[in-house]
Amino acid sequence: MRFSGLRVLTEGLTGNRGWRPHWRDPDPRPEYDIVIIGGGGHGLSTAYYLAREHGLSNIAVLEKGYIGGGNVGRNTTIVRANYGLPGNSEFYSHSLKLWEGLEQELNYNVMMSQRGVLNLCHSDGQRDAFARRANAMVNQGDDAILLDRAGVRRLVPYLDFDNIRFPIYGGLYHPRGGTARHDAVAWGYARGADGRGVDIVQNCEVTGIDIDNGRVTGVQTSRGAIRAKKVGIVVAGRSGQVAAMAGMRLPVESHILQAFVTEGLKPVIDHVVTFGMGHFYISQSDKGGLVFGGDLDFYASYAQRGNLPMQEHVMEAAMTLMPVIGKARVLRSWGGIMDMSPDGSPIIDRTHIDGLYLNCGWCYGGFKAVPASGNCFAHLIAQDRPHPAATRFRLDRFRTGVGLMDEEGTGAQHNLH
Amino acid sequence: MRIPCPICGSRDIREFDYMGHAQALDRPDPGAGAQAWDDYLHNRDNPAGPTRDLWFHGMGCGAWLVVERDTVSHEVTGATLARDVKGGAA
Amino acid sequence: MRLDKPGQIDRTQPLSFTFDGREYSGFAGDTLASALIASNVRVVGRSFKYHRPRGVFTAGSEEPNALVTIGQGAAAEPNLRATTSELCEGLVARSQNRWPSLDYDLLALNDLFAPFLGAGFYYKTFMWPAKLWERLYEPFIRRAAGLGALSGAPNADHYEKAYAHCDLLVIGAGPAGLMAALAAGRAGLDVILADEDVRTGGRLNAERIEVDGRPGADWAETVTDELRGMGNVRIMTRTTVTGAYDGGTYGALERLSPEVAARTGAPRECFWRIATRRAILAAGALERPVAFRNNDRPGVMMAGALRAYVNRWAVSPGKTVTVFGNTDDAHRTAADLLAAGVHVAALIDARPEAGTDLPVRFYAGAQVVNAHGRGGLEAISIATLSGIDKVQTDCLAMSGGWNPTLHLTCHMNGRPDWSPALAAFVSRDGAVPGLLTAGACRGDFSTHGCLAGGLAAAKAVLKDLGKRARATDLPVAEDAPYRISPLWAVPGKGRAWLDFQNDVTVKDVKLAATENYSSVEHMKRYTTQGMAPDQGKNSNVNALAVLADATGRGIPETGTTTYRPPYVPVPIAALGAGAQGAGFAPQRFTTSHDLSVEMGAPMVEAGLWYRPGWFPREGEKTWRQSCDREVGMVREAVGVCDVSTLGKIDVQGPDAPAFLDLLYTNMFSTLKVGRARYGLMLREDGHVMDDGTTARLGAHHYLMTTTTAAAGQVMKHMEFVHQCLAPQMDVSFISVTEQWAQFAVAGPKSRDLLNGILDDPVDGDSFPFMACGAVSVMGVAGRLFRISFSGEHAYEVAVPARYGDSLFRLLVDRAGELGGGAYGMEALNVLRIEKGFITHAEIHGRTTAFDIGMERMVSAKKDCIGKAMAARPGLSGPDREQLVGLVPTGAVKKLTAGAHLFDAGAEAVRKNDQGYITSAAFSPTLGHFMALGFLKDGRARHGEEIRMVDHVRQIEARCRVVDPVFFDPEGGRARG
Q1: How confident is the model at residue B90 (pLDDT cuts 50, 70, 90)?
Q2: Is A30 among the domain residues?
Q3: Smallest Cβ distance to C724: which of B30, B62, B82?
Q4: Which residues does chain A have within 8 Å of residue B46's beta carbon, measured at their own beta carbons?
Q5: pTM for this model (two decimals)
Q6: Residues of B at the C interface (Cβ-Cβ below 8 Å)?
Q7: Are A331 and A258 contained in the same domain?
């Protein structure tokens, strides 16, 4: 069924009786060409692009809970391509281009809103580092504008320019960045993949990976054994556990990242704004809630919930940066499990086992990567060579030191990125 | 979350810095080879359940602690001075 | 209307207030909601999506409809619940989400388009043309959505945060909580009793229930008086416990009463972190509505809330009230209304077997199927076995049963269990370690059950903590059984509301199921059910029951969504209290701060420190003029600069030499006493962490310096290396950054200046380059280091911090006499770039010793932190970007930090990128711009002409690759 305003109209006039499931709930078949473990944004988009661009449809996505229940449904919805290092540059650029046509591609309104992302800087040194990153963005073909203090003031006059602890020197503005409706991204890809014959199997937990002679042959699941020629692992925070089923020990530590939303308010923040002297980023959802977050809680965790110290720290950043939102009330806090890598950048690579592919290490930047991650992972799985936009996301880079992408420059400690 | 610092008693985690798994205590020999160093610095068991990790009581006594903790429930079951753990292992 | 009965209001204290500009009055003890009801105001707000008129629905913090903005100007606070807002004199309240007025709201049109605005309609449209999303659709949606508006002014009120510690936190001061606190308090535990209401008593204030033969509220008052008299019990009213966190930590939001908050300096609200050994949750239960057609009409409200309004506040929302329910609470409501003299037009009990002795028109086994009256309830339709009865009524009290308030038990990933007997979810014991439940939140709905449950929980805690319980009698109270026949949604046409705030109806949930959003989480996210300010407190259980029915699953199998903190919304200003303005981070000031400010220097943030940018002199109009002059001063005479912000770490012990050898890439065990050496420190991953000079003051005594930025990180790293890697080393160290004021004295006349203040003058022999030692500075024991960050003959002189201010004044004064003076960060930066000295602009966390040309400083003779990983193939070699100097050669003379480097003829795109500039400045010494940067294989490319492109500053320049040391490459000036 094709969605459109006309369809909404005709259905409305006929009692909304014609709507159909957006995806099926098939039982798993005994064998597939490709099994994707993980029904999050990345897994679903992988399946979608395998079907859409590589003509494959004998594919299953196995999800232990409900699709989109992990980080794709728990983030602060920010989409951007403002990275500074080669490897990340071309990948996120590719992703942003896919975002820009996603509604039409999926025939599902994911509400990609290119409202602009503004990173604030608070010292000369930070401004120079921003300039370097901005120039890298332009070199890549993306958009970046270096704003001075007056320029920032014109764009976001409600910041505290006069009393803030760390004065605002300027900002890096990325007009094509913005936000998207996070759940809808998972659902849109699910619907698109399902429509192309992919089996999306929910409540199906993978309990083992079958390997014969160095080659993957299938998976064991809570709903029985499934044979597969190729298997892709795309399970974010759970990467360590699933890879362990194949005898692998990954350069990943799972951490908790919290996020927050306030009660609905009339429009007050029109862009995505980030604070440079404390991890804090904020935007306002179309429903009116201020959606914001900060840094990791810093301890390894699978709990999907955090503690007060970081919550308070985030609110403190909000109060020094934009005391205009002081009277907004935090309605809900939640957490996701972040697959933190040693350099803060992801891994999309083959493994030492034939037919077994790995996609992980997204840290807390996975949402904006959803289209390109699936697109590039599908390419790797289908063609056994990396997509040109994802050649540097190698698993062995930590051992060799070749092509590390430590954007923050904080070094090989997983929770510092 | 609160950590029972052997020196200071039960303290809120906001007084501590976290570093990662206590495997960081087991620094390889300089010539142990690329794989040993890769395993030491990068690769992790990343357990969902009981773990031992390193916390620094930076806003307290300055001790590095090996904390026994559960990554799923966040239950903290014990803390030992890292120097004692290390001393015991040596 | 106000009833002619006492209630818990003070009629001697009338209060006037305005709502939407109209003046009304109430009494002390009223909430805004009760006062509005007393004034016969029925419509208090508009719904989120369809903009339907709405009236007061509950009497608590779960209120979905009566959300208002209170206050004016910067003090205006949106989305406050009228039901928990205490009335005070002069209160100004406004309704929200309507335009132009509450009565005539243009977007009420949405209600007519409801067939097209069902669950998730926006996912299916607004896609064409793509550009219109940002330009048209989204702005319209944003303006229509949202609830209240922020004032637009920065917060001007005071908020606070505080800590509290106790043995037992009792959450909720109803009968269960009071009993628990009483027993625990008598036994000597440190108890905090928190309740979100302004007074203790809970439902006892809202019901006509007796305890020990007295009105329940009187009993509560007596118990509260006893608790107040105990030194070990703290009663915190107006305090909502918002979240359960790890390790017995709870968050709580305290609202100050309007009178207290109005005092000068008093906070409006305070966010508490309560660390407790045990907790008892006695938070009661929340009544749930029944979904039927138009059940959102103003005048339809919860039965328990109606009883609270009648009994506590002596107001009735209607003259002719009807009651609809599926438990005995419907009967209790009718009885209370009759006792208060309010006409009850009908009592409808959905249970077929029900009966009543009350003198009212009674329907058993019947259901309300529609509510009539656009602007407010006028009549209801009742479906009976014999047909539809229409009854005129202006207020319908409804009760679909009670949901235990178990939210806190689920804050640590606990899931509740379904109880078929209660037709409700109940908490699982042990879901939050150390937390017990008691009373209605445990599913014990009778007053006796609450009292007994509270006492039992307290006894369990006492036993657990090894305390003896003192004799505490259980008061006598009603123990009526709870009989419920589940009723979630009355079948029929039209829209029946589940989530009043987000306008989610039974149809929406069914549509979600049809479209296979059948997981409860999918349903929630697709329909927005439970995502509004009440977080589904009024609606979630009903909605998942409807979903269970639509999907053919049971309720337990369908499950709940996740309960998340906070239980009630918390202002950002409360959680972030103290951080507004400068409070966000500590401020560190050097001893030279006052003089620097006196001299007009702009003080610039450097980490937490403030340092002078430059020292303007008369006639200097730009920073560059001052900076150039200061550079010249240092190169030609003498300059003085405060360098106290650099980290100073005192290292002592027999193993201090070996310890420093492990920390630094180079050797410090071979350093002679009385000498200093530059050291390079790596992270274990082989990248540069920090650099600085370390002086050997004695055989077992060193003084290390770190950069200002990395001081804390280095200290922590040293503790790690010592305690975790080398605890056998006999070494101790401590930060002495704040103990010493240290000043650089640099320039050809630096020795002249110094010898004027040293009690024993120094010369080239006694104090050669890189010498260090104790000196006497005008009688004060100090230290002198002959080190240079400017390339000039220079010293750093240190004195105990208490002498810093006077020494700095003296040095600046004497420097002036020698043709020099103070210099700031800008000049310091130019001086170091001229010499090719690096800072964290260069060692930014991704550079290696190889990159900065210091690979030979990694000693081959010993191990050090980072050495093994620095040997990885990717960390050295011609593919690496290496430190170079750059000078302009073309028409454009300016070089900028952050620009990228390209081959002379290459297009400025990523694949041609050869490197970037880290530091750039105009050198007054050289008379042109210079820059440090990293260039692919740069050391092999000295002399090459390349292209610098700074897209974002629109500067492009040709430049030549040179050695990074621009000035005095032989270093003669520093040594001489």
Answers
A1: very low
A2: yes
A3: B82
A4: 239-241, 250, 252-254, 300
A5: 0.97
A6: 1-2, 10, 12-13, 17, 19, 24-25, 27-28, 30-32, 34, 37, 41, 54, 56, 58, 62-64, 73-76, 81-83, 86-87, 90
A7: yes
